[in-house]
């Protein structure tokens, strides 16, 4: 593997998804990312990595960047929180300040950047993500969202693998470009509503994707992390259920509150955040299983 390069990518910075569709385009932002390249001239398959709310971690996002580059992939690890000045803040501040629309913009910007490289196969670019980034990985599978950010004829992801992704949004328009989606969950993960995750899988199947929702019984959130003893994290999002309409409006399924901008988004999240939290615990055997599965899914692109 060549040395990692820190780069910036010019992308949109919308507060809400509907900001991408207005007469006035959203502001631009220089997205910070780390590029990991394999040996050889290519063209190589590519992978975009979307970080979790814990931020860019050496023993998670960067580890996957190195591992996948060694396996022959050109990898862009996106730092959505560091880009916006929240790299050193806690999970709560990141969730309040950096929106899903921003993180989706970063993911699609990274896809377009990889697809434009001569040493990358534009038709073989996947996305993986962890926790909040796992949610972004699932959302990036919908044609409605890809079209909002990249237009009707822009590149599309060829594979989606979500690690313990938050089960927050469902779409009224489930159509996908057809790329396969794999959703990996821990059976003891209280940050995820497993029944809702399975419903999201059903949505994506109806939309045209081959979907697997795989549950690992007895396993907690972030099984591929570094926590050798069980660690409690305050507040979980398993009861935050949102719906994205065909006109890109977002509402709270439980209370019918609408997300119109930054403040109403915060109000909806705070209303449904569960202070009972969730636990994180490393599991080496599950990590090996999911890493082997990840490589198999990417190789099938």
Task: Tell me about this structure.
It is a single chain. The protein is an alpha/beta fold. It has one domain (5-234, 280-299): Alpha/Beta hydrolase fold, catalytic domain (Rossmann fold). It has helices spanning 58-70, 80-83, 91-97, 100-115, 132-139, 143-150, 194-207, 262-272, 284-299; strands at residues 5-12, 28-36, 44-50, 74-78, 120-130, 159-163, 169-171, 181-186, 211-216, 231-233, 242-244, 250-252, 258-259, 278-280. The strands form three sheets. Strands 1-2-4-3-5-6-8-9 form an eight-stranded mixed β-sheet, sandwiched between helices. It has a four-stranded mixed β-sheet with strand order 7-11-12-13. A two-stranded antiparallel sheet has the order 10-14. Helix 4 (100-115) crosses helix 5 and helix 4 crosses helix 6 (143-150). The chain is globular, with a radius of gyration of 18 Å. The two termini are 21 Å apart. This is Dienelactone hydrolase domain-containing protein. It holds the Pfam family DLH. InterPro entries: AB_hydrolase_fold, Dienelactn_hydro, FrsA_esterase, Pept_S9_AS. Residues 32-222 form the Dienelactone hydrolase domain. One of its GO terms (biological process) is proteolysis.
